[in-house]
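W.,

You were right to be curious about this one. When I first looked at the sequence I had no strong expectations either way, so I just let the prediction run and decided to look at it fresh. Below is the sequence, 279 residues in total, followed by the output.
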Amino acid sequence: MHSSASGLNSVQKACRILAELTNPGPHRLSNIVVNTGLNKATTLRLLETLIDDGFVQRDVLDKTYRLGNEALAAAAVVSRRSPFPECAHPSVVRLAEVSEDAACLCIPSGSEAVCIDREDGVYPLRANYVHIGRRLPLGVGSAGLALLAWLPEDEIDRMMARNRDALARFPRLSADRIRKDARAARERGYALSANIVCEGTGGIAVPILDIEGRPVAALGATAVAKRLVARQDMLARLGTGDAAILSRAENNWNQANKSLGLEQELTKVQREPGGSWAG
């Protein structure tokens, strides 16, 4: 649930609606209004525009909204830009199989952590608060904490300020508690969270870092809190090993992309009049 929408421009309000539609549904007008903090008239007007432009679809039978074909097109472009989610999926599956608990992959989006992949283990008692599309403020939950903790201090300050209202939904968390947990996560190499998002459950997550040491994703597991804490060393080893491999793969892909981009730009320049290939 977002804070008040006062001060937002129309583009920001539309983005807020689109972000809400990535959460698990169903998405009725009343739910969208509550969760975005927008008033009903504004929400309805923006939804109609987004429907006209293909970004949102409305089910006329149950009167719910979902992302439209433009979102599918955008997802296809992103997937071609980076194979990271596809490459990371076997790690999510492996973590779920070995741990027997739910494993997930989350990425940062603005001041939030968003789950983009999840696999369930066979253990019958599950922590079901993390689903694909679920958003939590950075600093909340193990993945959100991992994605916050490895940011530079000035960015942590900005994210904490942006999430001030959103953090009010989690009375067990204070700004001081999040900063303390972030420092502890950096020292031990992984983030641990229990009984924060949902009583009796918790999570452990390790950051996947880019070449500059910034978090691009977090790989983790969620479980019953007592079960999680008792096995945190084993889970941390599993996650840390795969996270290191995924970090190298992501960085190698990005470097290869940059080299290809420079090569293509050089070719373009050389083919232009006056370039070295000009006749």
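Here's what jumped out at me. The chain has ten helices and eight strands. And, maybe more interesting for your project: The longest strand covers residues 215-224.

Coffee later to discuss?

I.
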